[in-house]
Amino acid sequence: MHRLVPIVVGLLIAVAAFSSMTFIVRERDYALVFALGEVRRVIDKPGLYFKLPPPFQNVVLLDKRVLSIESPDAERIQTSEKKNLLIDSYIKWRIADPRLYYVTFGATERAAQERLLAQIRDALNASVNVRTVNDVVSKERDKIMSEVLSNVARRAAPLGVEVVDVRLKRIEFAPEISESVYNRMMAERTQAANNLRSVGAAESERIRANADRQRDEILADAYAKAQAVHGEGDAEAAGIYAEAFEKDPEFYRFYKSLDAYKQAFKDESDVLVVDPSSDFFRFLKSAEGAPQQQ
């Protein structure tokens, strides 16, 4: 038993020494190997690596993934019209040069985040200060993001940082101008709605006038056709009457007298002042229509 103790101690010392001389680099990390405070190697491939034990060499790991930074508070930025806007943004970035990044910021991300947020603030001011509220809110929002991305990427490159993307999440009016801007927008929308209504009313009148003209044309054509048919019917009836009159003149006179009676007495309130001995009543007193005796 006493002989095993030195062996176990020796094994533990060997394992500790071996572990201090090896390190693992994951796919998500960069590894910086330092010797006496100086960067000797930069490793960006995953795997098992060897180094000298401390204090001769030590390793610092940096995250190589794409990271995101969101502005903690909305930035108050002034437009060319001297109106304040509240803008929320976020940035996606990653470490492009581990050695340069470590020299600039050390092993912490906080310093890099603060520097990038300050650069975004400066870039937003440069792009928004020369534009109107309408440009920032709607017309040139994509162009502003492109300008900010280009500006921040150019300034971040010497720091060992690659800026992947910059986005504007939210753009709002500052409280002191919100009401006036909303009133102006409402007035503009009301004017646009009134213009549309006037155009619609004019179009409605045009359509209605066209429909009335077509209706009048159709009615006139129908009336002309009806009158033509009516005239043909009257002509045919007159022919039939003439033929009947030629065959039996007395019957024709009798029929026409009955028709005259029907028209004369169709309303009970009508008053007819006629001499009873008039020829008009000849068929009322005699079916043969003989003249009345004096």
UniProtKB/TrEMBL annotation:
One of its GO terms (cellular component) is membrane. GO terms for molecular function: peptidase activity. Keywords: Hydrolase, Membrane, Protease, Transmembrane, Transmembrane helix. Residues 20-185 form the Band domain. CDD domains: SPFH_HflC. Its main location: membrane. Gene3D superfamilies: Band 7 domain. This is Protein HflC. It comes from Corticimicrobacter populi. The gene is hflC.
